Every structure is written in structure tokens, then in C-alpha cells.
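Appendix C: a fully annotated inverse folding record. The material below is reproduced so that readers can follow the format used throughout the book. The structure is listed first as C-alpha cells, followed by the designed sequence.
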């Protein structure tokens, strides 16, 4: 990926690998577990209907862990790119933490929702939420007790797909960071970008299921690969 001539619009997809280095673990596709819970139990609408207390407690814990985590060098490098890149940039993250934002990035889209957000099923309002939902707090907007984690569960539609596909259609460069390429629709972004004639780069700990789609794959920890790549882009 030497040389950025002709590149103006960048779309970046980030996944679990970038937050893992900040100590946050997410759902693992290989064993179907998230922090020792089967994903059907804690990350589906059916699981929430079956045992709302267990699900609220699970995301209360995720909220605590997110608040305790710190951005790492990869988050900081992308924040630097965000502030210094004059062209279009969209950081699409599959992660529910706010580490991109806390590192200073602003052009971030959370396609799978946010741990620090609560969604009211009664009035559809969303509120930044850092405390517990287990004890059934009232919605600050409508007063109903109907808040759920603002997380896109399996079987639900990821957020802002139209905006993501519009950005991919304009992209000159698509970069995938720390994601397994196993979960659709994000796994299909590289194909969308390629059909828009974008160059494609993968930065990942190991070769992913989608590696064959990328023009270039660099293997290693995000905290090393991302700062080095951003340095190349900005110099
Ligand atoms: Zn409400």
C-alpha cells in the first residue's frame, strides 16, 4: 500500500482485534461464547425475552469493563488520521466500546450499537448510559421502564447500513482492522469496496476468512500495524 496517490475517500472497518489489546473481549465466532455465555443467551432478542435480568446484568458488566478500558496505540493512530486526513473518512466499528471516541476520533459509526447507550422500547429514545439497567430505571424521555442495551443482537439489522454502503461506493481505499471476516454483513464490505474499484488493505493478527479479497494483508498486532500504516498515509 505504498503511495496514496489518487486516494481521497477512506473507509475503515474495525473489529474485536483492535479492542482486544485494550483488554476487551467480544463474541468469539469459533466457540459461540461471549465471556462464557452462549451467544443465543446474551445477544439475541429471544434471549432477552427469556431472561431479561441475565441479559441486563451481562451488559451492565460490559459497561463497567468498557469504562475501565483505555484506548491503545491503534485507536490513537486512527484518531490522528481522523484529525489530519483532509479527504472523506469513515471509521465503521463493530465494537460496542467507545475507545475510538476516547482516543479522539470523531468520524465513527457503531454498526453494532454501543455499550454506553440505552434504547427505550417505549419511545425509541436513546440515552448515553454509564450505570446499571438491571434495576429497571425509567426512561428519561418518557418515564416508562422499557430501556434495553442499545446493542444490535443477532437477528437484528445493523445500524446505518445505507450510510456505510454509500461510503463504500465512493471509497478509494478500504482498510479492515482486527476483524475475522466471518460475520456478515461486515464480511462483505471488502467485496463492496472492490466492486467500487477501491484498493483494499487488511491489518489483522492472522489471515482471515476474507483475506483472499484484499490487495494486501499485513499480519500482526493492531497496536503495531495501525500506527505504522497511519504514518505511511500521512507522510
Ligand atoms: Zn422512553
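Designed amino acids, in order:
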Amino acid at each position: 500500500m505504498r503511495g496514496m496517490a489518487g486516494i481521497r475517500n477512506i473507509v475503515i472497518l474495525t473489529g474485536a482485534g483492535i479492542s482486544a489489546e485494550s483488554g476487551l473481549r467480544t463474541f468469539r465466532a469459533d466457540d459461540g461464547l461471549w465471556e462464557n455465555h452462549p451467544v443465543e443467551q446474551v445477544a439475541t432478542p429471544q434471549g432477552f425475552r427469556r431472561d431479561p435480568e441475565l441479559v441486563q446484568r451481562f451488559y451492565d458488566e460490559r459497561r463497567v469493563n468498557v469504562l475501565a478500558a483505555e484506548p491503545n496505540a491503534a485507536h490513537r493512530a486512527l484518531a490522528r488520521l481522523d484529525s489530519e486526513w483532509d479527504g472523506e473518512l469513515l471509521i465503521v466499528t463493530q465494537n460496542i466500546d467507545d475507545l475510538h471516541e476516547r482516543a479522539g476520533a470523531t468520524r465513527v459509526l457503531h454498526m453494532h450499537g454501543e455499550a454506553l447507550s440505552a434504547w427505550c422500547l417505549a419511545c425509541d429514545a436513546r440515552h448515553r448510559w454509564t450505570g446499571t439497567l438491571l434495576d429497571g430505571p425509567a426512561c428519561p424521555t418518557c418515564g416508562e421502564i422499557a430501556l434495553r442495551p442499545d446493542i444490535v443482537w443477532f437477528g437484528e439489522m445493523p445500524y446505518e447500513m445505507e450510510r456505510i454502503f454509500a461510503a463504500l461506493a465512493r471509497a478509494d481505499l478500504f482498510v479492515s482492522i482486527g476483524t475475522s471476516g466471518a460475520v456478515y454483513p461486515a464480511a462483505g464490505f471488502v467485496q463492496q469496496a472492490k466492486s467500487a474499484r477501491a484498493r483494499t488493505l487488511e491489518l489483522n493478527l492472522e489471515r482471515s476468512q476474507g483475506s483472499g479479497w484484499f490487495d494486501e494483508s499485513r499480519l500482526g498486532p493492531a497496536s503495531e500495524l495501525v500506527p505504522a500504516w497511519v504514518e505511511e498515509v500521512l507522510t
